[in-house]
Amino acid sequence: MDIAQWLRGLGLERYIKTFCDAEITSEILPELTEADLRELGLPLGPRKAVLKAIHALAAPITPVAVNANGPADYAKPSIPSDAERRQLTVMFVDLVGSTALASGRDPEELRDLLQAYHNTVVGEIDRFEGHIAKFLGDGVLAYFGWPRAHEDEAERAVRAGLRVTKAVASLTEPGGAALAARVGIATGLVVVGELIGEGEARERAVIGETPNLAARLQDLAKPSDVVIAESTRRLLGEAFTYRDLGTVPLKGFPELVQAWLVIGEGAAESRFEARHGLATTALVGRNEELALLLDRWERAKEREGQIVLLGGEAGIGKSRLVRALRDQVARVPHTPLSHFCSPFHTNTALYPVVGLLERAAAIRREDASDEQLDKLEAMLALGADDVHESAPVLADLLAIPTGERYPPLALSPHQKKERTFQALLEQIQGLAARQPVLAVYEDVHWADPTMLEFLDRLVDEVQRLPILMIVTFRPEFIPRWTGHGHVTALFLSRLGRRQGAAVVDRITGGKTLPQEVLEQILAKTDGVPLFVEELTKAVVESGLLKDHGSRYELIGPLPPLAIPTTLQDSLMARLDRLAPVKEVAQIAACIGREFGHDLLRLVTALDEHALQHALNDLLAAELIFRRGVPPNVGYSFKHALVQDIAHESLLKSKRQQIHARIAAALEQHYPARAEAEPETIALHLTEGGLAGKAVDYWLRAGRIAAGRSANLEAITHLTRGLEALRSNPQGPERDRQELALQTAIGGPLIAIHGYTAPQLGTAFSRAHALCYELDDTGALFSTLSGKFIFHFVRGDFAAMQSLVAEAQRAAERTSDTALELAVHRLAALTAMHAGEFLTARSEFETILSRYQPEAHRPPPVHYVHDPKASALPYLAIVLWVLGYPEQAQRTSRAASQYAMELNQTNLTAHVQVYGGAALAELMGNVAAVKAHAESIIDLADQNSLNYWRESGLILRGWAMAQEGNVEGGLALMRLSLNERNRLGASWYQVRYLWMLAATYLHSGDHDNGVAALAEAKVLSARSDEHMWEAELACIDGELHRIRGAPADEVEGYLQTALKVAQSQSAKSFELRAAMSLARLWRDQGRIADARCLLGSVYGWFTEGFETPDLRSAKALMVELSRS
């Protein structure tokens, strides 16, 4: 056997010279011991690798066949007894040209060759803790991520693949030709661990397309190539360099598949840089921590050496904070020294130092030995005048042959280590003597023992030098340097809610996410920046959202957000570390983020001692937290995403059984909780395959949530109830359940999506039909009101009239006074829409006179249909139009008082928009409009009332323009008007467009004023709305007058406005038209006509003489009387 070739196969080619100098032959090799290898100077990691390979050589050879267990020395790790769902990275290795190798070859010789090949492949996969699934002749199938996951399985698989191709290439067949392997790798969700087959053929299978994809990619690979799927590439970042192979057809896959060729290691210095690249989002929520680091840097520059121990869980932002510090001090002359520990080199002596030296000296593997040595000496000269002492020692550390330049190191292993430490310390001291040093040691929880020993020495030296030393680590590492005076311990905590939202905002580029999406992201990520970033990216790329420029909008209902593929391995690794008690964690995860001790005991059926032991293990691993004291002990998962991964790793069938047991336990042992939290029982029944039984619980949960104005939650509960209803057999009982659900969901849908949402129309139409199928006249109150409002806001006048007639017929058939009031409400709104203000007033006042709270106030879920809550704000508008501004204001105050009494957010917004801001705008009270607008927007933002928010923004824009910010106000009005158009809102849109046109008119932008007015007229005609007809004609006349139209043409518009207002008894509109016409006549010299017209209209009013319109009329009358 060729010793050099054997060492290359192990990736230990740097020790070829050592073995040759010691005259180690293939005969002596099996006799080497741990002590022998230590004497040769091999560090711990290479010693273990050599001994393991020697053991493999000594093992008996077994024939290789399809489904064989593989090399005899390979022992499979402990396998879970149950199948699981999990993300898996699958590797398929194939020996190139195996058919040709077997041709004409002696079977025993072929066996030995394949055994050597298998041993080589297994050794490399084992190095990265992959799992050998099976041997398929000359093929090897391996899993990364099962039976135990690591946080970087894709990277492990690719590193193993690269080493496999290199190691196999070092093997030769007896004829001297080199062997070659090719590798395919793919990542995806699978079911793994399912037992299939019988007898000796029984095995644990992986079910899913991922293994097939890996095998097909291997077919695509050329000799010594590693080809990976797009799913794997996304997880790797810039850890490697790649060649895009484009989209390729693969057998068994209906669509083209993106493939990548892995070229080699990437240029990224650190895991953080490989993941994020050089461009990162701005640092959020770490100002105090960054200030502390900068303070320690300032001290270090004054030769008060400092050390900061920077701890925190994975993804909390340690590396990001260090990057921010580097950016801050970049312009200050200093020497940066960056060391990166690696999970793949925990037993490679001084691995972070070796990496630093190779990067600093720009040493490449393909460089000749002399060139490597030259580069090392040049780099060392930066910190020392004489490098002859340190160069040979550090060259040995880097496995650089020194040839004749330096004599061999005649040192024992201990002496060599001491000389290495001394050389490194002297180099750091020399660099610090020239300028301050920023030395960073990242991920020290992965440091090898020798590295930690060196850090012990360095800690003592730092305090006398201008050095800031930062050591980052995770909680499982206990730093041993905290007792020193120049050492500061800094442990990063999670971000707060506002800071988490800021991270989301940075990831979306400032585009607003729907509130419910933002809330779910923040709830699931628990303030861990990495989690926030990755989940936000996953949501944006998920297809759940539509990009509207400045914001995203949900395309459909929001499902529970899936765990990003970039976090799957990391989260699963946390769970797999506790394999013996993982099932308890999975059951707890089914209960929820928080779970009680007693309920868990009921569901697991474990005895108290066994359960407590399992919980203690979970507590010790910090997967869960404990609160309270016995017997009232509760627990919660540290991270929502850990709970998610534990829950989702269960097979659906087993998960269903657990949820059913939880539901039964809650119903039987916790009746009070079932009453207070019906959604909890509903969830477990649904997940437990008992959806039909869950319907009534979902209905109760929806009603409770709606009563608390938790509208998003109400929609979710009621929608799930409708979904669960499909499990029940068709019939009257199912129809009754559906009617209750469809009527209950209307109010929350209005609050969140507005009156024009298509799903609202669907809900009320279905409820309307069910009322007749069930002959349920009682439910007609809410269904007719709801269906009417849907058409009213969309401007469908014909549908409105039809529904009024239907409601009248239904009321005549019953003695239901609530239905009678609904008829008056519908009639009042229809009359107001038609400009029949006297009729509208009569209908609204009838409602108020007959309204009795105990008989007519609906339950909270149906407050949107409350006739009094609708009548008061609209009556205020009608009273003003009819010429009673003081009565209008009193009614407005009554509406506000009633809204406070009901304390329902959607009704509060309704009252503030119409009874408050709209009335204030009609009366010209800019300050009041502004105050109401801000209140509306705040209320909408706090409660996701998107429909009302647009009205608030229009009113804010109008107030801005009146106060002088004309350009900003008009832009905001136009933007929000467009959004209402997109929503399909017609009601009050004509008035908002009138406000826009009037603002353009007063700002001198007559062309845009004409365009806005034209839009208003088109909409008014299309919806057959006459409420603002007089106002539109009046402003039309003003625009024509300003644009120089003939006087008779202008007068025609104003006369139309006057006549329409008179026909509608709209005295306030009549007064405005009269003032415009009086000014026109004044300018024509028709003073008497003007005085007579305006005097007759003004003389009608009996109140409101201090309002702007009446004061303007009075002033104009005085002017005319003096002419």
Short account of what is shown:
The chain has about 1100 residues and is of the alpha/beta class. It is built from 50 helices and 18 strands. Helix 22 packs across helix 25 (about 640-650) and helix 29 runs parallel beside helix 31.
Would you write up a description of this structure?
With 1123 residues, the protein is α/β, with parallel strands linked by helices. Among the domains are: 1-58, Transcription Factor, Ets-1 (DNA polymerase, domain 1, Orthogonal Bundle); 63-265, 2-Layer Sandwich (Alpha-Beta Plaits); 277-491, Rossmann fold (3-Layer(aba) Sandwich); 497-565; 575-692, Arc Repressor Mutant, subunit A (Orthogonal Bundle); 1029-1123, Serine Threonine Protein Phosphatase 5, Tetratricopeptide repeat (Alpha Horseshoe), CATH 1.25.40. Helix content is 59%, strand content 10%. It contains 50 helices and 18 strands. Strands 1, 2, 3, 4, 5, 6, 7 and 8 form an eight-stranded mixed β-sheet that branches. A hairpin with a 6-residue loop joins strand 4 (181-196) and strand 5. The longest helix has 22 residues, at 413-434. It is elongated. The N and C termini lie far apart (123 Å). The model is unreliable at 58-77 and 197-202 (pLDDT under 50).
CATH C-level class of the domain at 277-491 is: Alpha Beta
Portion in strands: 5-15%
Distance between the termini: 123 Å
Structural class: alpha/beta
Total beta-strand segments: 18
- Unreliable residue stretches: 58-77, 197-202
Radius of gyration from the alpha-carbon trace, in angstroms:
39 Å
CATH evolutionary superfamily of the domain at 277-491: P-loop containing nucleotide triphosphate hydrolases
Overall morphology: elongated
Pfam families: AAA_16, Guanylate_cyc, SAM_1
GO molecular function, one term: ATP binding
GO cellular component, one term: cytoplasm
InterPro entries: A/G_cyclase (IPR001054), AAA_16 (IPR041664), Nucleotide_cyclase (IPR029787), P-loop_NTPase (IPR027417), SAM (IPR001660), SAM/pointed_sf (IPR013761), TPR-like_helical_dom_sf (IPR011990)
